[in-house]
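A further point concerns the way the authors explain their paired sequence and structure data. For illustration, here is how one protein appears when written out as sequence plus C-alpha cells:
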Amino acid sequence: MQTTHPNPSLRLNIIGTGKGLPSRLVPSNEIDALLGIKEGRTEKLSGLAQRYFLADDESADAMQLQAAKIALAAAGITIDDVDCVINASGIDRQCIPFNAAHTLRLLKPARPIAAFDVNMTCLSFLRSLDLADSLLHKYPTILLISCDVASVGLDWNDFHSSTIFGDGAAAAVIRSSERGGVLTSKFEVHPEGYEFCTIPAGGYENHPSKHPESYVSQAYFHMNGKKLYKLAAEAIPGFLDETLAQADLTLADIDWIVPHQASRGALQHIISRLKLDPAKIVDIFNTHGNQISASIPSALHHLLTDFPVRSGDKVLLFGTSAGVGLGALVWEKP
C-alpha cells in the first residue's frame, strides 16, 4: 500500500552522486594464496575478479569523505547547502554515538544541521532514499551516505560467505524537482530468515560482559547461504510485481535496473527468472563485490555517470537485506 506524499509537488531528484573506495585492491588470486587453494578457484566460485579492502593503516573516514565530496561537487554545492544528512550504513562505526554524528564531524558544516541514521543492512540506502522522498518539504537538500567495511568481519573458514564481499562508500544528494521522482516503493521483512545472516556480537544481547569466552567468534559474519537464497528467490518475483503494480507499471516499462550486488549467483538467478535484458542492468559485482549498504548507491553512481540515462527514464532499484528484508523503488529521472 502506498502512502500519501506530504507534498505531491515535491518530486525527488538525485542531483549528484559519488563513491569512495579503499586504496587496497585485492585480486582473487590473493585470496587463493591466503587460503592456500588453487589459483583461480576464488574467482571461479565467487564470480569476483577483485574487491577493495581497507588497509591496516587506513581509515574508513577517507572513503566516506571521498564519496560525499564527489557527490556534493557533482551537485554543485557544499556541505553548508545541505539541510539534513542521513547515514545509511549497514555496520555501525561504534555503538554510540550514531554514525551520522561522525559523518558531520568529518564534513565540518559551518552550522549544526539535522542528521540521523537508517540501518536496514544492505537496504539502508534504498530505505533512506524512500524516506528522503517524504522529507523534502522539511529538508530541501539531503545528503545520503553509505559506508561499510565488510572485511573486518569476514570468517575465512567460511569460503562462500567471505569471498563475495568488498569495502566501499557511496553518496547521493537529493533535492526536489517538478517532474519525475519516486513513482512507487515497497519494503517488507520476512522474519523467519532472521538467523540466515548475522553478526551476533555488538549489542546488548551478546555483550562481552555476558559472554566473554565466545564474544570474538560472535563478532564475525555468519550466513546460511542456501536458506537465504531460497527465501529470496521465491519472494522477489512476486514482490517486484506488487511494487510495480502500485504505479500501474510492469518490468517492460523499466529502462534501467540497479540491483543490490549480493552475489554472482543471485544476480544471474534474477536475470534468468525475470527474463531481464542484461543491457539494462547495472552489474559492478565482478570488480566491487557485495559492499553491503554501499552496493546499491555505488551501482547507482555508475548508472548516472556511465550509462546514457535520459529524462523520463524509469530506474528500478531493488534488493534484499539481512532480516530478511526486501525493498524496491522506481525513480523517474526528471
About this structure: The chain has eleven helices and 13 strands. The chain has two domains: 11-179, 183-333. Residues 225-245 form the longest helix (21 residues). The first strand starts at residue 11 and ends at 20.
